[in-house]
């Protein structure tokens, strides 16, 4: 059950971004990959928030259909890690993580719940909620590589979501496509990813945006795959270079980790409640 995560530097050119994704998808297919995870904002990153709003479209629009055709042509499952989907009103889009199967059909959609509204010390001021509407649902999906838990970027800082995905929704593989800022990525990217893997005993697939998208925005990169014991089993050799990292999902390892460290059985619901009570999602 071979998987891959992509690392790329998206720009405001929809055509160039698609060409990059197409090249990476072909590389993954040639490597025997069954599922490729693309990062957040894989199809477009503009200089201003209103640019993303302007190109947002429904999930049957012309940009989206190109990626459906790509999945179908290569016989490859694609995790589209954050697509600008037409939102609930003219002023807001959704940041939507879409799972496509190898026929190009939509299997599941997750709209980003936690929006990145922060002023990073020494970094940019970003307020995602100005142009993005939040989602309201926890989402999993069945796939050839296991039960997937769909998340996006800033969600990584909220362990309750991942606890819910594992202990209530029975996820085995967590998808965390991202566009982490350079400042926050240096401090917390790998740390948080490995923590989510250890506390849920899941594989974590972390596709990443990297490098300078324009004069105002830069992403950290460092796409990687982490196993249920918290070990990094694959990562791009250079955090700023476009490429993929490939690994195999070892179902026996996942079972062994969960059997030898049975945290699901040791959870004290009588003290701190169920995952559904802990989370308002």
Low-confidence stretches: none
Number of strands: 17
Helix content: 25-40%
By CATH reckoning, the class would read: Alpha Beta
CATH topology heading: Nitrilase/N-carbamoyl-D-aminoacid amidohydrolase
The sequence of SSEs as H and E is EHEHHEEEEEEEEHEHEEEEEEHHHH
Structural class: alpha/beta
Q: Superfamily at the CATH H level?
A: Carbon-nitrogen hydrolase
The biggest beta sheet is recorded as: 9 strands, mixed
Number of domains: 1
Q: For the terminal residues, how far apart are their CA atoms?
A: 30 Å
Overall mean pLDDT: 95
Strand composition percent: 25-35%
CATH architecture: 4-Layer Sandwich
Keywords: Hydrolase
Organism: Selaginella moellendorffii
Pfam families: CN_hydrolase
GO molecular function, one term: hydrolase activity, acting on carbon-nitrogen (but not peptide) bonds, in linear amides
Give a short summary of the structure:
This is CN hydrolase domain-containing protein. The chain is of the alpha/beta class and 281 residues long. 31% of the residues lie in helices and 30% in strands.
Explain this structure to me?
The protein has 281 residues and is α/β, with parallel strands linked by helices. The protein has a single domain (2-278), classed as 4-Layer Sandwich (Nitrilase/N-carbamoyl-D-aminoacid amidohydrolase). Helices cover 31% and strands 30% of the residues. Strands 1, 2, 3, 4, 5, 8, 13, 14 and 17 form a nine-stranded mixed sheet that branches. A six-stranded mixed sheet has the order 9-10-11-12-15-16, covered by helices on one side. Strand 10 (146-150), helix 4 and strand 11 form a beta-alpha-beta unit. Helix 1 (14-30) packs parallel to helix 3.
């Amino acid at each position: 059950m071979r998987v891959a995560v992509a690392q790329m530097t998206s720009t405001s050119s929809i055509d160039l971004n698609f060409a990059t994704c197409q090249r990476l998808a072909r590389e993954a297919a040639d490597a025997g990959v069954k599922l490729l995870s693309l990062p957040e904002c894989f199809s477009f990153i503009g200089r201003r928030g209103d640019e993303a709003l302007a190109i947002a479209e429904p999930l049957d629009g012309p940009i989206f259909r190109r990626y459906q055709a790509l999945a179908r042509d290569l016989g490859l499952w694609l995790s589209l890690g954050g697509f600008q989907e037409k939102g609930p009103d003219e002023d807001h889009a959704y940041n939507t993580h879409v799972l496509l199967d190898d026929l190009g059909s939509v299997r599941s959609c997750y709209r980003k719940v936690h929006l990145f509204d922060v002023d990073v010390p020494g970094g940019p001021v970003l307020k995602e909620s100005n142009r993005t509407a939040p989602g309201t649902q926890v989402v999993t999906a069945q796939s050839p590589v296991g039960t997937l838990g769909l998340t996006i970027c800033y969600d990584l800082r909220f362990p309750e979501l991942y606890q819910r995905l594992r202990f209530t929704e029975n996820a085995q593989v967590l998808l965390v496509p991202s566009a982490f800022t350079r400042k926050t990525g240096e401090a917390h990217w790998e740390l948080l990813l490995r923590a989510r893997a250890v506390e849920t005993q899941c594989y974590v697939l972390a596709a990443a945006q990297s490098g300078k998208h324009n004069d105002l925005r830069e992403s950290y990169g460092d796409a990687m795959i982490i196993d249920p014991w918290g070990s990094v089993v694959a990562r791009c050799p250079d955090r700023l270079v476009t490429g993929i990292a490939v690994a195999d999902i070892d179902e026996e390892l996942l079972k062994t980790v969960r059997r030898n460290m049975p945290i699901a059985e040791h959870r004290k619901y009588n003290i701190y409640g169920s995952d559904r009570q802990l989370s308002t999602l």
